[in-house]
Amino acid sequence: xxxxxxxxxxxxxxxxxxxxxxxxxxxxxxxxxxxxxxxxxxxxxxxxxxxxxxxxxxxxxxxxxxxxxxxxxxxxxxxxxxxxxxxxxxxxxxxxxxxxxxxxxxxxxxxxxxxxxxxxxxxxxxxxxxxxxxxxxxxxxxxxxxxxxxxxxxxxxxxxxxxxxxxxxxxxxxxxxxxxxxxxxxxxxxxxxxxxxxxxxxxxxxxxxxxxxxxxxxxxxxxxxxxxxxxxxxxxxxxxxxxxxxxxxxxxxx
Length: 254
Prior knowledge:
12 helices; extended; Helix Hairpins
């Protein structure tokens, strides 16, 4: 039960508890929170329920740590966190807990955004793009911003239009390569990445997931090259690119 974990945390941070668990601050624990989040994603990618359960527990531990630290400072407690998200979900789903209607997922998302803007109103929340954390990975942040722009009608009509934009950005990047101007190359490469995220969003592909899977594929194939080199008693640094390419092609067929 969650109350058991809260009790464990109180014991760890209380008198006679663990020196290490009493030491971290909200700022110093941020890297651990991020690391545990990515370990959950990795477990999900591997499709192993026992790993997902374990990593979700590790992530929950970080959340309870932050909540209990806030409780010690008199700001809020774990129950406030749980109650707050429960109340928010009820308010954000009036088509379930109230009399409102939402026939499609698009209806739900539009209502969600309107309710979110109403809740977070004020001088600091005026843009349709507000609410996307700056700390998100760049690909995911780009996708979220594009989603928000799309909901107010700022979007392409067809995938072909997005592909034309990708090709345009690729041409512009090729042109600046000749200039060898680092700032221009960085800018045009960023534009190309942004347009690639747009086509991913348009066809329903999560760009972060797509890139993670490609990275995993690269690792598998490269390790195949290493294994074959080891079996032959050779060091990768001694092999030619052609030899490594041949092993790479072999790995693709495996």
